[in-house]
Amino acid sequence: MNPPVTAMVEGTNLNRKSKAVRVAMEEDQEAVNLAADWADISQGLRKDLGHQAHSQWIKPIQPGNWCKETGTLDLYLPTEFSANWVNDRFADRLSLAWKIARPDVRHVRILVHPGRRQLPELRLGGGGGRPASAPANDSAAGVADPLSVALAGESFASLGQGPAGIDASQTFTSFVTGTSNVLACNAAQRMAATEQPQFSPLYLKAATGQGKTHLLHAIGHAYLAAHPHARIFYCSAERFMVEFVQALRQNQMIEFKSRLRGFDLLLVDDIQFIIGKASAQEELLYTIDALLQEGKRLVFAADRAPQALDGVEPRLLSRLSMGLVADIQPADIELRRSILENRLGRFASVEVPADVIEFLARTINRNVRELVGGLNKLIAYAQLTGQAVSLQLAEEQLTDILSANRRRITIDEIQRTVCQFYRIDRTEMSSKRRARAVVRPRQVAMYLAKVLTPRSYPEIGRKFGGRDHSTVIHAVRLIEELRTRDADMDGDVRSLLRQLES
């Protein structure tokens, strides 16, 4: 090939590469724009639908393929059940929201994510308990999907990372107990013990991220340790319904019932998702009755009490609540500190100052999952960037988590709590009296107003009988100083902070 032709070919190749790079950059930018638009839409829907509905159905949505020519946008959900649910109930609202945000969107399709995890099916027709081919979890190679697992006749000790579908790290040893969860933990340990428990089923009730799923996994671990050849079934209520519907379609209900009622331990998570499925509820009811008659063990977990499950028939509600309902309350600050300190044991090479632990424990108070996630993120960032963990770094890198956890505390609420604590009349917060028994509580209230609210000094002063901002500054500095040298004052402030932040 002569030089001019070679140069022409090379130029063509460069143009092609340049065009490919440009197209890729445009696609990346479009993906960023879609993500930004979805963040705004999702936030708006959260306000319209409420936190619970948004968290369960809207938050998992991911923007997918976008075709400019047809104006079609695909929204992905992780499972067929959730995609159908959202499509039935929120399709019109989602379509309208996207059309408002992006006028070029003409059609919105709600689909199952093409890369979703394939859940192993129950082998209904004889044979062993494990599925013949359990695909790897996309987040942990070699571990089957945790939503569904059927085990039979397999030694617990022979499984390197614990049974398929049960998280090997979620054991009773790694579960940190406190006053808010000790009943549930003790009941879970009793359910997994060798001797027959005095109650069944066990119903674990807790808000999202408080540890109920951890206890389900821990029960599975401990039960198989005590009964190496036991047969267990661990699934979500959603997965139970999927298996039930598949059995119906394939005319395999007899096999399904026989298989399901042959387990020694039944663990069902997120039972609130069985709402509205009458036939699946009836099958679960019969399964519970059959297993209880044979002395088998059952554990359910949900984000609300049995009586608060809407759309569940009374007979099933009575079965769910006939054993022990163990409530896991939100972790108090002492438990949050213990969880963080326990977690730090896994990061021996990283030094986290005590003030950072105190800051995280006090600020991230919605649920334990966010608390541990915040610590993990902070340590990972420090390790990857070579920075030391500090209070400033925590405030900079955990902005989203911190802002989501800050409860709106009002100055009126602070004044009311302080007056009850010191047993003085509420009018003293605005009065001109200067008796020590009144002045000190008033100064404490001003200090708490500055610490717990975003209000400025002048705004706080106006709430305390129109006092000047310099009076508020003096009160804040005085209480700060008293806390360092007066143990009683520090104890009072700590107690008030616990009351206001709980």
TrEMBL record:
Domain I is involved in oligomerization and binding regulators, domain II is flexibile and of varying length in different bacteria, domain III forms the AAA+ region, while domain IV binds dsDNA. Belongs to the DnaA family. This is Chromosomal replication initiator protein DnaA. ATP binds at residues 209, 211-213. Residues 121-140 are annotated as: Disordered. It comes from the Bacteria. One of its GO terms (cellular component) is cytoplasm. Residues 410-479 form the Chromosomal replication initiator DnaA C-terminal domain. Oligomerizes as a right-handed, spiral filament on DNA at oriC.
